Amino acid sequence: MSYLTDTAQALGVMKQAQENYIDGRIIGGEDADIIDFPYQLSLGYFSSHSCGASIISADWVLTAAHCVYGRSASILAVRAGSSIRNSGGTLHYFEKVIIHQDYDDDYLANDIAVIKASAEALSQSKVLRKVEVAVVDDETCHRELANYTFYPSMICAGVEQGGKDACMGDSGGPMVAEGKLYGVVSWGPEKCAEPRQPEGVHQDKSL
């Protein structure tokens, strides 16, 4: 069996897990207050949580392309201003989805998208969680995740001993350092935060 076929199957398993287990959460982190992360959103379909997202302007949201691929803007909504993903804050709806022109749904290359809010502008005003991980150099990440395909726009992050990571349900959420948005949660190994494969993969927002 070819390497590319192996990779496609592995990513297929991961994507199926994301669809079946959207309650997956940050691993090894702690509860967080939306006051400290006012740009964080809960993105879902018909107001049911599926992915994370970030406010980048008064009427634009940044998320992972696989969170909105093949879905109409009319069924998408985000909850803003709440530490609880399914209550509180305010719901906002959308009129347009723009996916990166080179997004590859098989290999999650260029896994980034923006969504335009409808008339009402976004306000930056189970529990939001956060986790601190380190950026992992490309050589190490590619060695430890050797069965996966990588693209230059992908950023690996994790901790060597495992136990801390983003997981299913966190896709599209922000990768932030010192208050600056660097990317969005994209994908990772089938099992999150494993010691031998501790890295999660994020998409560079500068695409």
Automatic annotation (TrEMBL):
Domain Peptidase S1, first and last residues per copy: 26-207
GO molecular function, one term: serine-type endopeptidase activity
Gene3D superfamilies: Trypsin-like serine proteases (2.40.10.10)
Ranges that cross the membrane: none
Protein keywords: Disulfide bond, Hydrolase, Protease, Serine protease
Domain of life of the native organism: Eukaryota
A Pfam family recorded for this sequence: Trypsin
InterPro entries given in the database record: Peptidase_S1, Peptidase_S1_PA, Peptidase_S1_PA_chymotrypsin, Peptidase_S1A, Trypsin_dom, TRYPSIN_HIS, TRYPSIN_SER
GO biological process: proteolysis
PANTHER family the UniProt entry points to: AT26814P-RELATED, POLYSERASE-RELATED
Family, per entry: Belongs to the peptidase S1 family.
Protein name: (California timema) hypothetical protein
